[in-house]
Amino acid sequence: MYKITTLTLICSLLLFSCKEKKKEAKDALTKQELHKELYGSYIGSFSDYEYKGDIFTTMSLSINSITEDGVNGYAIVNGNRRVLSGTIDDKDSSKIVLDLKEPGDKKSDGVFHIVIKGDSLLGTWKPLLSESKLKTKDLALAKKSFKYDPSLMLSEDGMYIDYTQSKDTSMKYDDNDSSYVEKVFREASSAVTHLNASTTVLQESELKNLKKLDLEIIKNTVYARHGYAFKTKGARQFFDFQEWYMPIYDDVENQLSKTEQTNIETLNRFAKYAQDNYDSFGR
């Protein structure tokens, strides 16, 4: 009799546990999603507070879900993808306020305080650690939908100078024999604005006289078209000011076309032996 009672109790507990788990799963599935019109990617400037957007990095912030439990999404800044979670305040009909935190397992993590009005997202980012040396940032983003376009090119009006790499060179004054030291930087040619490695298989005759920076930029433009978020400032600096650039992915290798894969292999091969053109430029 005792064994039967114990067995009955165990079965009852297991049945109750299963029912509770099913109820929890059902509740999770039926949680009402809020403000679905806010879902999507927001792209724009991420800049030091004191510069007010004059010097910036292009960042993306994506909102994936909003329920009564909170907001979930992710941000990509400087090629680093960080998960976001936080709260929403929609009491004011004229705006929606979000407070979103990064995980906190890195010293560089912080919290976003965001105000959304229409398709515009304005706010600040502050480091989570009070003793952090990182500065407060401003962000000004707009909602955009990403669509891969292989025809996108760098603007022909730009000067494509690599300010992240320099070397000192000895220069002579025009009126005497004395000399001075001046910093010179890598400069790309106009080839970066008209050679498209996404649409056409590039010929060796088109590449053999190009400088190393030309080859790097032509290759990186392929990745930029796919929405790749560059991790190095040296690569980002040429795309942050392009209106079409949307850094929303941290890996796009599987998205490359056969033409792009072929061209990237060729560009890498030529870049191994290419030289660079250095010159002096004002900042």
Automatic annotation (TrEMBL):
Superkingdom, taxonomy of origin: Bacteria
Coiled coil ranges (UniProt) are: none
Q: In what residue span(s) does the YARHG domain sit?
A: 190-272
Instruction: Output the Pfam families linked to this UniProt entry.
Output: YARHG
Q: Which protein, by its recorded name, is this?
A: YARHG domain-containing protein
Q: Which InterPro entries match?
A: YARHG_dom, YARHG_sf
Gene3D superfamilies per the UniProt record, alphabetical: 1.20.58.1690
